[in-house]
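job 3f2a | input accepted
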Amino acid sequence: MAIPFLLVIVVVAVILIRATALFTVRTQENRIVERFGKFVRVARPGLNFKAPFIDSVTPPISLRVQQLEVNIESKTKDNVFVTVPVAVQYVIPEQNVVAAYYRLSDPTAQIRSYVFDVVRSALSGLNLDEAFESKDDIAGSVEKTLSSQMREYGFEIVNTLVTDISPDQRVRDSMNSINAAQRDRVAAQSLAEADKIKRVTQAEAEAEAKRLQGVGVAAQRKAIAEGIAEQYEMLRRVGIESTAEQLLMMTQYFDTMQDVARNGKTSVLYLPSNPGGIGSMFDEIRNALLQGKAAESAFEDEPGSRPAPPPRPAPRPQAPPPRPQEQFPQLPQEPEPDSGSLPPQGRLQQARQRLTEGAERWLPGQQ
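job 3f2a | predicted structure (367 res):
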């Protein structure tokens, strides 16, 4: 009976020693051993021993990087309330575990206080737009202040991030409206500039086209004038001098009529209403030319070209006898075909041929 009793005593003693004298520390953690409340040592990762019932162990102190998120509500220089979320990343170096544990009772509250103070001081001197542009500057100011203050207490600030600056929803809507209006204005300016370039380019193209058209018209008129002069000299060389202008005008007239007949886009054209009127019009022109030439020849052959003696005085002046009317030669009339059965182009060609034949018959006798 004695052996089992001793065995039970040994087992109980081992359990008590394990529970009160031995403890383990995880990686990236430290624990502080205190004896009757007084610091004894820092327990590193692994298996550690302490005096049972005498020493006590503090909760684990993490050596990993930790993050503290702080939401700060503040007012900008232009009286806009904004919410600024700030993320503070800090770590406790292994050599500063004792200072970090004993010097601050609530390190997170201390960090929050410093963050509030720095952020509110920075935002009070910035407008809303400047605050959005100065997020990195605000984060740098927070990190610099925290690093200098918390280093005394064994904490090291790794990084400070200002993740956002969030104004009220109505302010955000107003800002979006302003940005939309500015973008619409820029778009309108771009469209107006594009339309300006298009109009200027079109005007330059039209000006160049009109210039080239003027050059073409000038060349055309020059060619026409040279052609008319050449035709006039040719007519003078063959003996047709006094009626050369009329013949050229009639030729141009017929060319114009042919062009009008070929071009169907003419809006208004003044011509005789009946088909037979075209032939009578050409006959009148021809007879007028021939009668004018005959009258000129008759006046040159008239014997009364000598100066007449002064009239005798009479009690009453008498009117001179009427001058006998000259008989002008008439061209033989040939039977005319039915012009109503011909198309307009044929009628013009027929009238032109008749005029040419009459001129050929009359002109040789006048030379």
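job 3f2a | The two ends are 180 Å apart (CA to CA).
job 3f2a | closed
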